[in-house]
Design brief:
79% helix; single chain; 335 residues; mainly alpha
Length: 335
Amino acid sequence: MDLDVFVSAHRAEWDRLDALIRRQRRLTGAEADELVLLYQRTATHLSLIQSSAPDPQLTGRLSQLVARARGAVTGTRRASWRDVTRFLAHGFPAAVYRSRHWWVPTALLSTVIAALLGWWIGTHPEVQSAIAAPSELRELTRPGGEYETYYSSHPAASFAAQVWTNNAQAAAMCLVLGVFLGLPVIWILFQNMLNLSIGIGLMSSAGRLDTFLGLILPHGLLELTAVFVAAGTGLRLGWTLIDPGPRPRRTALAEEGRAALGMAIGLALILFISGAIEGFVTPSGLPTWARISIGIAAELAFLAYVYVLGGRAVRAGETGDVDEAERSATLPTAA
């Protein structure tokens, strides 16, 4: 490509596009059509220059022009309550539903590992002694010990906020760090399961496993499900880097990454609910069966939300990604 000849041939079109973008008054119908046509042509010109005769100065100018033109064509869009409603009713449950083949096996495998580790810790005194001194273990597991008073050690509201913040950070880290082939996600998930298994093992060795489960199940069912969803999605994002499927790797990562970002927001809301249960229900004076029933009800409600609303949204074509108009423009490659 002769760059000078190309610029001379199309400079007038670029200048006209720039003039239409800068125009203060409302465009007529004909001018709006012209703006769209020139935007498409200029995007094509930019693509050709980038692939055939890259020139930093000209590429920068046309990139800015295309970006401004795209903004003029699509308009400035502000988030509204309608967007929030659509996200909660369609986008978020669809994203969780689509990743179920990752987070459901993650949940099952993690639960089995936690149970086995808990059994190993509970049946091997030498392992328990490596965790803490006998006096410290008795203080942890005795009636009224630290495992029981932990949930009422702070005011309910501040405790719930602290729990929510910690869990939301862990979920966000699983989602974000999944791009590193999923390895940090596995470590974060293992740390969570190890902490759970230590509690199971120590309390079972003291003959108080029922008390421990009565404390952990009300909030733990929903909380752990949210962590499993985040971990499974992070692992899926890592696998996309290895095997993007029929999509270009960059496109696949962008699509899955945007869906993961939306899931981080949705999971923060779910973890807020589990944090509220942990702060107000778990340490309450309700009977154990009532507290566990609340936890089971919250878990079943979330699963129904994902499989009913999410499944319906996916079958209708929802992917959990942002609207097509809000994605980065894909430049044409043919004149």
